[in-house]
Amino acid sequence: MPQLDSGGGGAGGGDDLGAPDELLAFQDEGEEQDDKSRDSAAGPERDLAELKSSLVNESEGAAGDAGVPGAGAGARGEAEVGAEALGREHTSQRLFPDKLPESLEDGLKTPECASGMYKDTVYSAFNLLMHYPPPSGAGQHPQPQPSLHNKASQPSHGVPQLSPLYDHFSSPHPTPAPADISQKQGVHRPLQTPDLSGFYSLTSGSMGQLPHTVSWFTHPPLMLGSGVPGHPAAIPHPAIVPPSGKQELQPYDRSLKTQAESKAEKEAKKPTIKKPLNAFMLYMKEMRAKVIAECTLKESAAINQILGRRWHALSREEQAKYYELARKERQLHMQLYPGWSARDNYGKKKRRSREKHQESNTGGKRNAFGTYPEKAAAPAPFLPMTVL
DNA sequence: AGCCCTTTGAAGAGC
DNA sequence: GCTCTTCAAAGGGCT
């Protein structure tokens, strides 16, 4: 099993995994070159699959040794990267030949908008993550943590993001944020500790005990609307999103509600704990602002297409960092919400009708996977990186 | 107002 | 165990 350490001592070890080739392999997704790519990339693909698998399944207890891959990443020159990106360009467009929005095409007129040129990803916070100070002690008031969490991200739903890991995405090219962001949020990130579970004995239904040691849990502006029964001073975790229902029941309304209705509404009003972000989502969060700035695009769909291609253009090492971040996100999420399950949010978004899915499948649009039929039918068992 | 689009990845549901 | 489905972010577009 390949390891993340820069020593290259993993099972993939010795083998360079043929980074450029393997990337080209999934660049060449498409009808004509399918066979060629599949043949040439079979080996690297396996290795890549192992790598990704290892990144995901890496020892859950190894939080302390998550060294960021180091100098080895430099094996690939920028020229290679550029070549890959260029090579991918045509195939990526082939994926969405008809759907490519005009705005995206405009964006692509600038080569760097589609060439995966953003290689200067900042992982400083990823490293810092490993150095989060432990809680200052239960019962103590939080100490400001100025260095790590002096910036609040601004999710669309008006709540802070899940994890301190997110912080690093705002630098060095932070997404423009509303001027009143600090007033709205005033969020300090939680400090990740290796033993948060002892402090966050939460369940999905009840937030339970919240740490006094985590600044954003007790930050005054966020005390409002806390979903923490019995903890008026506590605030929900960033992943917790207030229910969409906005209107508060008037007293007389409440009196008219049946017990069942009230119970149902109470249930519906439970704060939503969002899923932890996966590697690609983390990557998108970081790079979106850059793409927007570079390509002057605004449509997220178009931006995401570009980001998807750039994601593929990333080197293994770069992707590995995001996989590692995502893994830590999941770990933290599990510690924060031990009883939470992804099924808790199932059906909370309005499901698209099956009829539409079927229509999409037959109509050459998106299939039930939310992707294109030919892509979903790709034989590669292991995820988009290895789509052939 | 609220869903759609678009991406990848994780995880639940169902067989 | 495999396939399918849903959700996670984002924000303009569309109904």
How would you describe what is shown here?
Residues 1-114, 134-187, 343-375 are annotated as: Disordered. Residues 273-341 form the HMG box domain. Residues 35-50, 86-109 have a biased composition (Basic and acidic residues). The protein has 388 residues and is mainly α. The protein has a domain at 242-270. It contains 15 helices and two strands. The chain has helices at residues 19-27, 34-57, 78-95, 102-109, 124-129, 181-184, 215-218, 220-223, 251-256, 259-268, 279-295, 300-313, 316-336, 354-363, 373-376; strands at residues 240-241, 272-273. Strands 1-2 form a two-stranded antiparallel sheet. Helix 2 (34-57) crosses helix 13 (316-336) and helix 11 crosses helix 13. The longest helix is centred in the first third of the chain and has 24 residues, at 34-57. It starts with 18 loop residues before the first helix and ends in a 12-residue tail after the last helix. Mean pLDDT is 49; it is low at 1-112, 114-236, 244-257 and 352-388. The structure holds a DNA duplex (15 and 15 nucleotides).
Summarize the structure.
This protein is mainly α and 388 residues long. The chain is built from 15 helices and 2 strands.
Oligomer: single chain
The succession of helices and strands, N to C, reads: HHHHHHHHEHHEHHHHH
Task: Categorize the overall geometry.
Answer: globular
Strand-residue fraction? under 5%
The unreliable regions are 1-112, 114-236, 244-257, 352-388
Counted beta strands: 2
